[in-house]
Amino acid sequence: xxxxxxxxxxxxxxxxxxxxxxxxxxxxxxxxxxxxxxxxxxxxxxxxxxxxxxxxxxxxxxxxxxxxxxxxxxxxxxxxxxxxxxxxxxxxxxxxxxxxxxxxxxxxxxxxxxxxxxxxxxxxxxxxxxxxxxxxxxxxxxxxxxxxxxxxxxxxxxxxxxxxxxxxxxxxxxxxxxxxxxxxxxxxxxxxxxxxxxxxxxxxxxxxxxxxxxxxxxxxxxxxxxxxxxxxxxxxxxxxxxxxxxxxxxxxxxxxxxxxxxxxxxxxxxxxxxxxxxxxxxxxxxxxxxxxxxxxxxxxxxxxxxxxxxxxxxxxxxxxxxxxxxxxxx
Length: 330
Description:
Blueprint: H1 7-20, H2 23-26, E1 44-45, E2 48-49, E3 55-56, E4 67-71, E5 78-85, E6 90-100, E7 105-110, E8 115-116, E9 123-126, E10 136-138, E11 142-147, E12 151-156, E13 163-169, H3 177-186, E14 198-202, E15 213-218, E16 231-236, H4 242-249, H5 254-257, E17 262-268, H6 288-294, E18 300-304, E19 309-313
Parallel strand pairs: 3-4
Antiparallel strand pairs: 1-2, 4-5, 5-6, 6-7, 7-17, 8-16, 9-15, 10-17, 11-14, 11-16, 12-13, 12-15, 18-19
């Protein structure tokens, strides 16, 4: 082993560590100078900046539905997205690591994201909760993952007939630890599942909002014969590594598995407090009154989403410190 003892060596070592730190976990924060918010409103939380239509504090600091919370109880402070479920009367907190006005996405770190599957039982479990009024949907930058034997899982939207994604995973009748070891060795270093012991599926954007539940069809009776737990999750595409995750959660209690932070990408659109045509499909464009109310920069234009509207800059005007939702400075 080579020991680095010089100051230059320490600096170089720190630089290498920084380069190897996963951007999925560290986030790609926007510098405070690049964020624009409403006058006299806080736009920073720890090392994160909060550009309008997002905001913190008083309601005047954000567009309805885009309020965030800064948790200063830990250092550095964490920016949180808090969603309320009226059906269960409870809130869910998601750690925000990146906000993009250009791609209309929010990257979050989520706990309770890994759903254990009980052996031999078919069931429907709640996934995100009922957040139909929230301006968020699952981005296509995520993937649906299932690990276990003889399982079929579907990701369901608000309507029980609204199937967003799903996949099936199978195992031979003589399931054993050797089988799982072979699967993990062959699965391209554990990053890809081919349907034997594990499967992965793309997620088209959940255009009707966040998915509410999972429908699990379980045909397996022998899951207890292996220490490999059966579970399902949604994660940002490229994050999942079956060998690493399997080792991390093997033998753990459910409450410990719930602590694992999983990155996810949410797509957002402005929905609340805007005039909307009765039939959105019959009006594919952005109404003049919506564009006038939402997109305040003279160099921006209004764009229709699947449930609401967005503001984008015209070519050449997307510069640091600018915001299509706010009037131009100067």
